[in-house]
Specification:
- The complex is a heterodimer of chains A (121) and B (107).
- With 121 residues, chain A is an all-beta fold.
- Chain A has no helices and eleven strands.
- In chain B, strand 9 (84-90) and strand 10 form a beta hairpin.
- In chain B, strands 2, 4, 5, 6, 9, 10 and 11 form a seven-stranded mixed beta sheet that branches. A four-stranded antiparallel beta sheet of chain B has the order 1-3-8-7, with no helix packed on it.
- The chains are: A mainly beta (121), B mainly beta (107).
Amino acid sequence: EVQLVESGGGLVQPGRSLKLSCAASGFTFSNYYMAWVRQAPTKGLEWVASITNSGGSTYYRDSVKGRFTISRDNAKSTLYLQMDSLRSEDTATYYCTRGGRWYLSSWFAYWGQGTLVTVSS
Amino acid sequence: DIQMTQSPASLSASLGETVTIECRASEDIYSNLAWYQQKPGNSPQLLIYDANSLADGVPSRFSGSGSGTQYSLKINSLQSEDVASYFCQQYNNYPHTFGAGTKLELK
């Protein structure tokens, strides 16, 4: 059974940093693209960042480029999101997702339960 | 960026009814489209990928169709457990973009 378990969310002041983790199990982690998708309270879904199966390439939405860093440790089957210079508009539930196809960018086949990040003074 | 225009924003339907949700892309996305269902308090779940392929475990009353810039999700014989929000998403280009969502309620 595929499982994605996020951790690391919480309350943080504007301008500070936070690092999210996602522990994956139930599949060969190194075969799949992974991504973070967020959802602000009562709002829609917003793709944040993706990383290729090897970690060699990363992709970001413009509003987080230069502030967020997606990374992965295939030996530990863990995905990360380092969030720096946080802003109030980054407040959201962050979901870890797994791609649907081997080695290719695709739909988000599996989602974690989400971790809430609140940016407020 | 590819804009995904989803309609309607909300929908009220009766049990047993057939409902259709539409999604229009601002450019051709070559069927690289997925649909997700999100029930209140839960994570989104994949329903349809590649515009018309049913994800594992999804009831056959759900179906997807379309090509180019126009796509739709159809739910046949609406059940009470289908009350949820539905989102389309294109993965043809980065940034991957979602529709604004459709909230489906029972009449």
